[in-house]
């Protein structure tokens, strides 16, 4: 009987070897390993440890920290690739050679601001897959100075200063909260100032703020200057608000250009005729107003109590001088004693205020004081161009044949 061989057969060898190698076959790999094998960052035929690709430059990853939405996707891919190959311990040292992750750096402030401006401009181009998170704009913090109804807040002046440097529709759209806060601050100040003006001049009615303040938008239809916004807040008080035929008080708030004034700016032909007629016949009326101590001190440079000097200072007011006729008006002799007053086409007073006089607790009282000084002047103008029925002088209706035209030839 034949003796069996003690050596294992090739079949048994295959069986034993296949059992020992089963851990390396694809059918026995873990779910984590299978997921790692399908990862887009891993070469399917490579035995090396998977390393996630690094971005081309820091500028692409951190183009703008304030707007870019940085998710957790990259971190998850890295953690999966760390455990993507579980075949043996011989590849463990390769993990130590990865080095430190790329250091997160922030853009310099000037580059960051430039990047922000590019993002909100129309037609901005973004790389595919980029997600922007646009933060809702917020107004400036009030800081140590609270907002009050009877003061102009420093933030209002800061907004107007920024608007002058960025007079653009897109800029104002982004900074709309600052505009709203500044406008509300000015409106509340106007309401308090209205109370002071009504106390000084009883002919001024109590009107809604919308009938007193001017819009910030410029009319650029016939202007070479196409900037869309005024760089100041302003309001006017008359018997009919900011509009109408009556002389008005005017207040303007602007960094480095605030002013208080009043009068008639380029009145219509009929009103101008009445003013010239009154100056021709009763020059003492306007001169007695111009020699008022408050007007001379606050608006005419402190000139002496002299009618001629006061009248000359009045004609030299910038807004009066800029619109005056170069020659005498028709119907009046060029040697007329009041020719300087007759040449005027605007009858206004005005004085500038420093920012320190406007901002703060003393601003309201200072502006109200200047308005009070102008009451005799505004009253005189209205008595001439829009006289009350009971105060009409019949003698003033005579000799109305004086012209208003201009002899520039």
UniProtKB/TrEMBL annotation:
InterPro entries: CHP02453. Residues 42-73, 387-409 have a biased composition (Acidic residues). Residues 74-86 have a biased composition (Basic and acidic residues). Residues 1-107, 386-409 are annotated as: Disordered. This is Uncharacterized protein. It comes from Corynespora cassiicola Philippines. The lineage of its organism: Eukaryota, Fungi, Dikarya, Ascomycota, Pezizomycotina.
